[in-house]
Amino acid sequence: MNNQGPARTCPNGQMAYTIQARDTFFSLSRRFGVSLQSIMDANPGVNPNNLVIGQVICIPVADPGPPVCPAGSFSYTIVAGDTIFALARRFGVTQQSILALNPGLDPNSLRVAQIICIPGQAPGPTECPAGSFAYTIVAGDTINALAQRFGVTPQSILALNPGVVPTNLRIGQILCIPGQAPSACTCEQNLTAANRNITLLREESGAQIFADMTYGTSTATTVATTVTTAGIRFAAADETFAGDYTCRFTQGMAYAFFMDTANGNETNLVVRDNFGVWHSFA
Fold it and tell me: Which domains, and CATH codes, for the chain?
């Protein structure tokens, strides 16, 4: 008589299978196109060296690849922190409509990089209101860091981006930032600036070495709040320094700096630019 044991229900993404003569986990992995380890993970407590005819185990269903989402929906790739509830709120749909588009999806077991279908039209690039600009999140970004970089408050960023969770920023996510977008330099401008700095290094190598030795270990930073053809202004300085600093400094970027107030309370600002050159502003 076969020892079938109690009926077994397998979770979504797996199917029940009844052991037959000569079955092994290895032969089953080849038959169903899944890894040996995935079968073992799906059956904790089952001894692969002592399978019993009639025993019911669970077999992972081979991944068929990214789903082809039907008309009126779009594909979405799961990232860390996603839940069906959060996705429903973000895209303005119901949890039930997401689950209906993804039969077999376990809402309690979403996997990072898993692709699912979302009802509706895929959101396009964020359109930011006048007086603000779009910014794409990169690794390491935080709301506080962005506020410091662009010379605004965290509250003003959050006010422009209702629904954004500060502790769950995603790489590639687009936010609106108050103010004017930092100017971008052309390749020609960058090349000119680089040559200018190379010339400076050659002519003032001694001064550059001194600056690196004196200020190079500084961990404090100051943000370039304004960079124009007429001058540059830093968050740590009260005045605007005259001169064309475009393409040498970037508006909104933080630079290592050193403040010296020992000489008659006169403040000097020593800042490292985009090309690693230290500049002293009196």
Answer: 14-60 (3.10.350.10), 73-119 (3.10.350.10), 132-178 (3.10.350.10), 187-281 (no CATH)
